[in-house]
What does this fold into?
Amino acid sequence: MNILSVTYFLNGFLMIAIPVGLTIYLTRKFKQSWRLFWIGAATFIISQVLHIPFNTLVSPIFNQFGLIALPVALQNVILSVFLGLSAGLFEELSRYAMYRWWAKDARSWGMGLLVGTGHGGIEAIILGILVLYGYIQMLIVSGVDISTLVAPDQVELAKAQIQAYWSAPWYITMLGALERLFTLPLHLACSVLVLQAFNRKKLWWVGLAILYHALADGVTVFVSQIGFSALAIEGIIGIFAIMSIVIVFVLRQPEPAADPIPAPISTPEFKPEQVNETKENLDETRYH
It folds into this structure.
């Protein structure tokens, strides 16, 4: 079997397995259900329903204000700042709203981690499913005559795409899983940062989460725009992953103690008094 057949499958499988495995660990460690994972997942999806159309609508406006006429380096900076801030604003404000109105009981460090796992995990799962879908498609088309599947003028392009897919270095095919592994700590860190706005009663923690998210996304966009290699980009994302893990553990707080089970109320054992039967006692208990 071609090694790429294994690595492409592992790439998609790990993108799904990593957040699922982390959620299983966290639910057992903190004795929680999957409810907070799904709340975090739904929050991410809602944020993207707003975030993606916003980017699509605003991007043409940049061109109207002459962005194309600017030097390429400046264009890259503006685009990176815009995409970073839009991601930070939509995702972190959605996370704040989730804590404020939906997961009102999620106020512990462990609960914050579960919400963050759902937020970043559902993204990894969706992408993993798409990767596996594309992998299955490539397996299918590799065994058939491509001219029967596409228009004649697209045959050569399709063949080139299939050839490129099966010619990639094996380690490149695993970068999707590696990126999800590095991205998940960012969501955990942002989830814990936003949680501080409620536990410490300071709203500026939300702003800090927005800025940190914007910095991570903006830097990643910028280095990809200026031509960094895929491995270099993943290395930079890995640096943010390490920073995120540090943030998570710096903000760690003891979990609230479980309510103690009240001790049963002890009552003295009833012991009937021994009464000697005499003629006088029997006379006193007789009905008159």
Observations:
- The chain has one domain: 3-254.
- The mean pLDDT is 89.
- The radius of gyration is 30 Å.
- Residues 3-254 form one domain.
